[in-house]
Amino acid sequence: MAAVLVLAITPALAAPKLFESTQLTPSGEYTFGIEGPAVDRDGNLYVVNFGKAGTIGKLAPEASASEKYTELPEGSIGNAIRIDAAGTMFIADYKRHNIFAIAPGATEPQLVFHADEMSQPNDITLARDGTIYASDPAFKARSGRIWRIAKGPDGAMQGVAMTAPRAMGTTNGIDLSPDGRTLYVGESNSGEIWSYAIEGDALTRPKLITKFEPNTIDGLRTDVSGRLLVARILKGTIAVLAPDGRVTRDIALKAKEPTNLAFGGSDGKTVYVTQRQGGFIESFRTDVEGREHCLQRHVC
To answer: How far is CA 106 from the centre of its chain?
Structure first.
């Protein structure tokens, strides 16, 4: 009788389900001030306040625990990180009203901008040409503004508080549209998200995109399709918004106090979330690449 050869077929590894979040790092790695996630071109994730205030932690690709990357000068505390296409890291220091930069391959922060007039630089975003936009909330006054920071003729960073046709609330989460022409700003006290056209040092054509409950929004990011992903602090979700403000999805998280998020992974479709409740990082897969991830690779 002829032998029958039976081939064992090993099933392919199942891809992670979209929009299902898992905890990546141990609880308690980061302080209550966990914030400012940003991913470099090599896939390393950086988050402020690792172990103690004023530090930056680093989570390598495939790692399950963070390590200390660097520390800001004494008295400075980071709240936001962004990384440009050249690999330069920018950090907003809300305590001392500074913007620091760390060059590729270095770990030492260098002061590139300071303004005594700032209430506190909270979140920042980077335009294609390297311009920095920084939210500057005054929480006690329930007000805020946006700063535009860019290189002057001498190569030094210069900044100005942008004009706007309306009084802003406590400006917090901030990001740009894929074409760089629109700035999205979340106002924590009102729960509102506004869009503005950018005209030099002026913000024009304000439009209310959507409104959540007061004090339930924090950081936000855009993807290459123009959607906004918003950290719903105290709600424990990431809201996905169409450019017109419609909530198309609410992604459940592992804890209730997400402060911010960033896109990473080899395809820019892994979203990392900083969780204040528990002091850890969690992540989920999405279906569209993040705007900044695309810009870092010069393909947008």
So the answer is: 22
Does position 12 have pLDDT exceeding 60, yes or no? no
Q: Is residue 300 pLDDT above 90, yes or no? A: no
Could you tell me how many residues make up the chain?
A: 300
CB distance 215 to 234 below 8 Å: yes
3-state secondary structure the chain: CCCCCCCCCCCCCCCCCECCCEECCCCCCEEEEEEEEEECCCCCEEEEEECCCCEEEEECCCCCCCEEEEECCCCCCEEEEEECCCCCEEEEECCCCEEEEECCCCCCCEEEEECCCCCCCCCEEECCCCCEEEEEEECCCCEEEEEEEEECCCCCEEEEECECCCCECCEEEEEECCCCCEEEEEECCCCEEEEEEEECCEEEEEEEEEECCCCCCCCEEEECCCCEEEEECCCCEEEEECCCCCEEEEEECCCCCEEEEEEECCCCCEEEEEECCCCEEEEEECCCCEHHHHHHCCCC
What tokens appear for 178 in the block? 């894929």
Q: pTM of the predicted model, to two decimals?
A: 0.94
pLDDT tens-digit map of 51-81: 999 999 999 999 999 999 999 999 999 999 9
pLDDT for the residue numbered 13: 57
Q: Are the CB atoms for 215 and 164 separated by under 8 Å?
A: no
Q: Please tell me the distance from the alpha carbon of residue 57 to that of residue 75, in angstroms, as a whole number.
A: 17
Contacts of range 38-42, beta carbons closer than 8 Å, 24 or more positions apart: 38/81, 38/82, 38/83, 38/89, 38/262, 39/83, 39/262, 39/263, 39/264, 39/265, 39/272, 39/293, 40/83, 40/87, 40/89, 40/296, 41/83, 41/87, 41/296, 41/297
